[in-house]
Design brief:
mainly beta, Immunoglobulin-like, 6-stranded mixed beta sheet, 469 residues, elongated, 8-stranded mixed beta sheet
Amino acid sequence: MQGRMLGLGAFLLAAMAQAAEPARDVISSAADREAVAVTVYNDDLALVKERRRVDLPPGPARLSLREVAAQMRPETALLRAVGGQPLRLIEQNFDFDLLTPQKLLEKYVGREVTVIRSHPTSGEDRRERATVLAAGEGTVLRFADRIETGVPGRLAFDSVPANLRERPTLSVLLEAAGGKQTVELSYLSGGLSWKADYVANLTTDGKSLDLNGWVTLTNRSGTGFDNATLQLVAGTVNRVRAPEQRVYAMSAPAPGAKSMQATQEALMDYHLYSFEQATSIADNQTKQLALLSASAVPVRREYLLAGNDWYYRERYAQSGQKLKPAVFLEFDNKGGQLGKPLPAGIVRVYARDSKGAAQFVGEDRIAHTAKNEKLKLRLGEAFDITAERRQTGYRKIADNVSESSWRIDLRNAKDEAVSVKIQEPLPGEWEIVQESQKHDKDSARSASWDVAVPQGGAAILEYTVRVRW
């Protein structure tokens, strides 16, 4: 019995000694990275995964993982061993309070510093100790015989406080078996975002276009990622919004384009774009990567003159108003080199002049577009096509019923015949009681007419509509 008690006491003493053993510090920098993978979402969010080779002592250790993203969401950080012995995680701290002269001074409030002054003629340094009383809106120093405001010379500090880091650092207290092993760190971070930009080049006859898509990637996360495997997620991912985090960012340099085609696949209800070739994403950098390319895409041009539903509720006060139809380009996301999901972005359209030079003719934003869907780009207003709208008649039949007659004159100064779509939103219950050409009922609230206008000629549309509201 006595032997058992002695054995138990020895075991407890050994356990207490192990518990009291101080954690040894291990520092890991970006040079220890074996692999990095970054998945970037549209909405200022990225998933970062990196593998590092570290040398851990047996027992408790504090592993400081430097050069993580400054906008890391620490509650999402996960560290695990890859092969080898498992790790037992005890606690983790994210230190994003970066070392700056002002931060260093603020940490020394209540502590002593050395004030160094140089003699104006001899240049000899004079040193004097002082206590920092305040460092917020201004510096206040207490010397042995006085108090001074401002910084009367150079300040020398005895050391750098442990909670100030020269780079963002994730500090993890853990227990390990010891030895060299690979660990994987994954976390979500802000400061990384991407958007799609497209360039559409129209052929000379304007009947087809070549489409090139680019990814514009911006990194303001607070760290760079060298030789990273890059993936992009298109779609709106629901997020629980947290208070805004501190951003360490500078203006980005001009983008540099790299020719890297992306492959895409479905990811639940989103789309994932992957780049086979690794790329480096420097901090405070914007860069462009090739997303897709398609040639000879058939395109249709549409001229649209749209009205307003309030025209039909009362007498029209702006009779004879001069109007310009909007110019639209339409094409289908199917066939040939298209037929793939297109991320939301801006499409910039160019057309060639008589000398073959590409000229900018308009741009429009597209939403996330699935394959086989139609894309419609508004480029601007037609210069050579003019419309004039007149109310030629109006009568009130009842308190909530009226009838109005309209004439729209179209003139075409182009060297080709065109078709102008006149689209009229109509309120309440409506009925076309007279018209010079048959309308199409687009919906319960809209009627439209496709009016052919000859080259250098004119055309007229007349109609009468009765509305009940």
